[in-house]
């Protein structure tokens, strides 16, 4: 059987509905999975009209009914937006609706009635205007699933990274680089890569400071927090190297192919190389949750919303990776 992928529609004032339509116009998605959109049927129909796709929408009551026929986009219709919702405007109605799509999808995922969640982008300002005060998807998913110890992984063709810290000020991120957290993220990297089909992951851990601290000359975190975590991971049987100076580790992973993933210490340390190397095809994976979640690695792109020109490659890659991970996790499908 094919895994059921629950696609959350994201912020309807942005490009989310359009990139979902474009991705689901590709038959190869239906060859490997059964997609169902958690969203608003009339908004998805509006997106089909903008794209000019030869597709139709159909509301279904349950994910088990969905994703069986290419050419029909099946939707769990929350019917929570007006048809005339304007594009390219921060709107609390769109933010509230986007949260409700995620909430519904998580509910089905925790019941194992869908096998992975794939998210279209939301707007953080609209999300907060809608009464849901979270920094982004990762934190919403953690709260809804009751998990506190999770991490963000970014995947592109040339590079994979996983974060020790994400949406916090840089000054605070340095204080959060602690042995237990670093070790936890190394273990998450090892487990998740195995779910992606890599049997013996090669993990590099980036240093926090220039030259990984140069034995305390440029900071002590690498020596006192990161190195002990690496040593413990090695003792547990994981193939881990580091701390590797952050100005060379991405070259070693992406170009020299010496590592399968890099554990990074803060948001931009991981995001910058990923977006340089694979902005259009990057996939965001939340690891450490009880359910699989993949996502596009870009925002709502208000500047082009409603024009039908948004690139859907990242959404397509997110769907394919979600299906691949679900087949490993739910091997009895």
Provide a descriptive summary of the structure in words.
This protein is an alpha/beta fold. It folds into two domains: 1-147 and 289-333, Isopropylmalate Dehydrogenase; 151-287, Isopropylmalate Dehydrogenase. It has helices at residues 16-24, 27-32, 41-51, 92-110, 124-129, 137-145, 170-176, 179-195, 221-235, 249-254, 267-278, 313-329, and strands spanning 4-8, 34-39, 56-59, 72-77, 116-119, 151-155, 160-163, 202-206, 239-244, 261-264, 283-287, 293-296. A twelve-stranded mixed beta sheet has the order 3-4-2-1-5-12-11-6-7-10-8-9, sandwiched between helices. Strand 11 and strand 12 form a beta hairpin. Helix 1 (16-24) crosses helix 3.
* Fourth-level CATH superfamily of the largest domain: Isopropylmalate Dehydrogenase
Give the number of DSSP strands: 12
How far the N terminus sits from the C terminus, by CA atoms, comes to: 5 Å
Would you identify the regions where 5 or more consecutive residues have pLDDT less than 50? Answer: none
Assign a percent range to the helix content. 40-55%
Q: Please work out how many helical segments DSSP would assign.
A: 12
Average pLDDT level: 95
CATH structural fold name of the largest domain: Isopropylmalate Dehydrogenase
Beta-strand fraction estimate? 15-25%
């Amino acid at each position: 059987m094919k895994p059921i992928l629950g696609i959350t529609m994201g912020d309807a004032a942005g490009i989310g509905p359009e990139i979902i339509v474009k991705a689901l116009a590709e038959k190869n998605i239906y060859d490997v999975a059964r997609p169902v959109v958690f969203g608003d049927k009339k908004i998805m129909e509006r997106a089909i009209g903008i794209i000019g796709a030869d597709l139709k929408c159909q509301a279904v009551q349950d994910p088990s009914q969905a994703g069986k026929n290419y050419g029909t986009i099946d939707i769990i219709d929350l019917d929570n937006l007006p048809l005339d919702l304007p594009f390219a405007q921060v709107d609390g109605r769109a933010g509230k609706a986007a949260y409700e799509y995620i909430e519904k999808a998580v509910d089905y995922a925790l019941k194992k009635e869908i096998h992975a969640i794939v998210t279209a982008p939301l707007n953080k300002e609209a999300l907060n205007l809608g009464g849901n005060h979270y920094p982004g998807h990762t934190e919403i998913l953690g709260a809804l699933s009751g998990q506190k110890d999770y991490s963000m992984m970014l995947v592109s063709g040339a590079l994979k990274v996983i974060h020790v810290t994400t949406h916090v000020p840089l000054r605070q991120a340095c204080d959060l680089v602690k042995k237990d957290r670093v070790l936890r993220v190394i273990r998450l990297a090892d487990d998740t890569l195995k779910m992606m089909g890599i049997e013996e992951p090669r993990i590099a851990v980036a240093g926090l400071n220039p030259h990984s601290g140069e034995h305390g000359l440029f900071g002590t975190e690498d020596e006192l927090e990161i190195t002990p975590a690496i040593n413990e991971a090695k003792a547990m049987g994981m193939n881990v190297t580091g701390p590797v100076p952050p100005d060379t580790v991405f070259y070693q992973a992406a170009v020299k192919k010496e590592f399968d993933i890099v554990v990074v210490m803060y948001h931009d340390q991981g995001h910058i190389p990923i977006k340089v190397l694979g902005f259009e095809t990057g996939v965001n994976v939340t690891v450490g949750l009880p359910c699989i979640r993949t996502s596009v690695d870009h925002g709502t792109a208000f500047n082009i919303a409603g024009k039908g020109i948004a690139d859907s490659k990242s959404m397509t890659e997110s769907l394919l990776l979600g299906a691949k991970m679900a087949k490993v996790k739910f091997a009895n499908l």
